[in-house]
Structures are given as C-alpha cells and as structure tokens.
Specification:
The protein is mainly alpha-helical. It has one domain (50-191): Tetracycline Repressor, domain 2 (Orthogonal Bundle). The protein has helices at 7-23, 30-37, 41-44, 51-74, 80-97, 99-108, 114-140, 150-163, 176-191. α7 crosses α8. It starts with 6 loop residues before the first helix and ends with a helix.
C-alpha cells in the first residue's frame, strides 16, 4: 500500500523516479535516494519503507497515466482512425510530460514483487486490449484492411510509441503530437483499406 503523498514523500518520489530512469532499479541504492533528497539513509526510512515500495508507487502512477488517458478515447464514438491518432498522441504526451514515471513504468515494472507485477500486468493487458479494440473497430468500419493481424498491429504501434523515449527530444523541432501523427500516418499507410 502506498503511503500518503506528503511534500517530502513527493520529493522522494520525483528524485527516485529520476534515479530509476537513469540508473535503473537495481543500480539505485537507498543511499542514492537519500543523497538526492538531502536525507541520511536512516531518515529516509521515515518516509520510505523499501526501495520496492517506491518502485511500486512509481509504476502504478505510470500505469494510471496511460490507462486513465486511454479511457475516454476507448469509449469515444469517433472513428477508429481518429481514436488511433488520439491514442498515439496521448501515449507520447505521457512519455514527454512525465518521462521519469513513464520510463519507470515501461522499463522497470518487471522488477516488482510477484503480486504487484501481476496487478501491473493486468493494467498493461487492459491498455493493450484498448488498442486492439480500436484497430478491430477500424477493420469493422472498413477503414483498415480486413486481413490485418490486429494483435500484431497493436503491438507494433505500442512498440514504436514505447521506444520513442530513447530518442525523442521535447526541446527538439517536433512536439510529441507531431511524432504521434507521423507514427500513425506511417502505420495507416500499411493498414488502411484500399
């Protein structure tokens, strides 16, 4: 169970997110976290029981950003192609606006204990299913090819979006929305019905 988000707890979460993002879960020690927030290791334990607790909290925050962002898109009555663009823009906006939490969610979730990992896997499956449902709607609407492998298409789009954090520069010439629109345009070129 996550502890309440006090000011100090939130500072610790932000610092830990940066550390996990850059050094990985296993490469980050409690001493690293304490140093990042100016607390001795012993004082840190007043705010944080274990490193695993913070990993769980950060991964769950990341999961919530993606799943909650997808909810209105998944239930929208817009066309599947429009929803696909919105989903990609939302996904890349999360990565661009919350890079530490998003990257910890995408890269470090497998380091969770078995119970937390199972919960997060269920969230990931739910999120992926929303992508598959949008693509399946596109096939039903006649906008996407009927022979399309829906699962493979969803995984391909998510793989591209998930890997963007490796090279995307939020200070560069393209916004997260520009990158998302380019991803979708390329994907649709291969998926759209003639």
């Amino acid at each position: 169970m996550s502890r309440p988000r006090t000011g100090q707890r939130e500072r610790i979460a932000r610092a830990t997110g940066r550390l996990f993002r850059h050094k990985g879960y296993h490469g980050t020690s409690m001493a690293d976290i304490g140093e990042a927030v100016g607390l001795r290791k012993a004082s840190l334990y007043n705010h944080l029981s274990t490193k695993q607790d913070m990993l769980r909290e950060l991964v769950e925050r990341g999961a919530a950003l993606f799943v909650d962002g997808m909810a209105p898109i998944a239930t929208s009555t817009d066309s599947a192609v429009d929803r696909l663009g919105r989903a990609m823009r939302m996904h890349l906006r999360v990565v661009a606006e919350h890079p530490d939490v998003a990257i910890v969610f995408l890269q470090e979730w497998r380091q969770l204990d078995a119970e937390a990992r199972a919960r997060v896997q269920a969230s990931r499956d739910h999120y992926e299913e929303a992508w598959r449902a949008i693509i399946a709607d596109g096939v039903r609407e006649g906008r996407l090819r009927p022979e399309l492998d829906i699962r493979f298409a969803a995984l391909s789009l998510l793989s591209a979006a998930n890997w963007a954090y490796q090279w995307y520069d939020p200070h560069g010439p393209l916004t997260a929305e520009d990158v998302a629109d380019r991803f979708v345009k390329l994907a649709l070129a291969g998926m759209e019905s003639g």
